[in-house]
Amino acid sequence: MIEKLKTVRGLVPGPVAGRTVFSIAGSCLVAVLDMLGVAAVLPLMQIVTGASSGTAGTAGAGWAARLVGSAEPAVLIPTMASLIAGAFVLKSLVTIGFRWWQLGFTTRLESEASVELMRRYVQSPYGKHRLRNVGEISRCLESFVPQTFSQVVQGLLNWITDAITLLALVVVLLFISPLATLLAAVVFAGSGWAVQRALRPRFGRVGETMARVDLDSWSALMPALNGFREVRLAGAAELFLARLARAKRERAHAQRELSLISELPKYVLEVAFVLGIGAVAALLFATQTPGEAASAIGVFAVAATRILPTVNRLIATTGLIRSGEKALVVLAAEVRELDRTDRHPSAPPGREYDGDIRLESVTFAFPDADAPVISSVSTTIEHGRTTAFVGASGAGKSTLLDLVLGLLAPTSGLITCGGVDTRADLNAWYKGLGVVPQEVFLLDDTLEANITLGARHTDSQLLDEAVRLAQLGPVIADLPEGLGTRLGERGVRLSGGQRQRVGIARALYRRPKVLVLDEATSALDGATEYRITETVERLSGTMTVIVVAHRLSTVRHADKIVFLSSGSVTAQGTFEEVRALSPEFSELVSLGQV
């Protein structure tokens, strides 16, 4: 567990050692105050029972008399009782303050770890991200991080506090009666150990069940919400509801079982408490005078009121830690996996890319694939011109585009812009790109925020120009609050073509040097596509344009066409040149599939 906690510790950016030491020091202070409160009961009990007249009670009663300044019981008893009550009140106030600080410490660790884990997800390589399950990411962020810190980390800190408190109380009792303390320890510790040993496997199974059903819940929720339209039309809602209901029932059963087995030790220890006090009383009366035995029993009784809940918490906390250990194991494995991969650099751009984009013998294969998706592709995307990647489905266009964008790294070969490797400064390369994907991602925010995505401040002139070039004027006029209208989750207020135009405006707002249209006009009507295509043609010369499209109208007027087949370039040149060079391209043109 320690190694796994060290791994997860890497998610917390700031220093932790000093705050951990302070937490342990606070635990010691609470324990000392508890010990002093219980120890102060002895002279009070000696005075009340008259045991102070004997030799054994002289030290405690004499100390109390010197402290109060009077040996009269009428003065000593209420004064000592008040002091003891004050000690317990002080201890309670210190404990509350310490717990407030400690809970703040662990909850802050949890929030910092969640943010850092999300940072590692968003900075992970695009190729790795494509293989991840969104439900598993959500489970790690929303379930495993909270369980690790609230159950394991907070549990360990609570366990240390209770263990130190228990040890301090045992020290007091050993001073009063070593033999009786050992007897009580055997009864309490034996009962606690037996219960914990019996319940330990159950805690592990409950933890595993809760981890599994949390993933099942996300697997039912995500498709039903993200694919709402398709789920509704397919009449599949009840299927996902049934899966969610099954997962929630299992979790409810596991939660009930966890609550019960966490409380079970309390009832066992209550029985052990009665038996232990009886055994201690019998031993004390057999070995001491009645007055001394009564005084000691009084102290043991007061101590027991502190020991019993402390032991209960220790056992319950141990179970809680074990039930959360599964989350710790999975989270530590996820952190190790993320640490094994390169992270996207967070440094600000350090250069400006400009010039022709050259692909030199670029080959790419996915790590788990037997054959490359892209094989020895060499071509030049000329600065200020429009280049189109075309080919049948599965030809490798999307993969080649991801390589040009810098989302994927070539297995071999080189991609340069102006003679400089585009991967030498990825943030600078990304800064000069404006990308319009086939499926435009929209925020549940205003239209303006969706166009200026990622910008700290809005440039009104750039915004107006982007809106005009993307033909968004009529759309804005129809919205109740214009650019300030919220678009809803995934832009539900807009049609597919309108969302596409928002994506084009977003790309143009960046004033990119390279504009990439990845099937960007596929959702547009013919008239709008024509106007957008005209706009792109006018932009030619001011920026480099890369187009991936199937429509003949979109690519016909490109300055250069690169035709792909099975991951290789089979022809490149103007539209008519490629048509003459490639029978496959000519056939696609004839069939109207390009």
Summarize this entry quickly.
The chain has helices spanning 2-9, 17-39, 41-49, 58-68, 73-122, 126-129, 134-176, 178-226, 228-234, 237-287, 290-340, 397-405, 426-431, 447-451, 460-469, 473-478, 496-509, 526-539, 552-555, 575-581, 583-590; strands at 357-364, 374-381, 386-390, 412-417, 420-421, 433-436, 514-518, 544-548, 560-565, 568-573. It has 594 residues and is of the alpha/beta class. Helix 1 (2-9) packs across helix 11, helix 3 packs antiparallel against helix 11 and helix 5 packs antiparallel against helix 7 (134-176).
CATH class of the largest domain: Mainly Alpha
CATH fold label of the largest domain: ABC transporter transmembrane region fold
Under the CATH scheme, the architecture of the largest domain is: Up-down Bundle
Main β sheet profile: 6 strands, mixed
Write up this protein:
The chain has 594 residues and is of the alpha/beta class. The protein folds into two domains: 2-340, ABC transporter transmembrane region fold; 357-590, Rossmann fold, CATH 3.40.50. 65% of the residues lie in helices and 9% in strands. The protein is built from 21 helices and ten strands. α7 packs antiparallel against α11 and α10 (237-287) packs antiparallel against α11 (290-340). It starts with a helix and ends with a helix. The model is unreliable at 52-58 (pLDDT under 50).
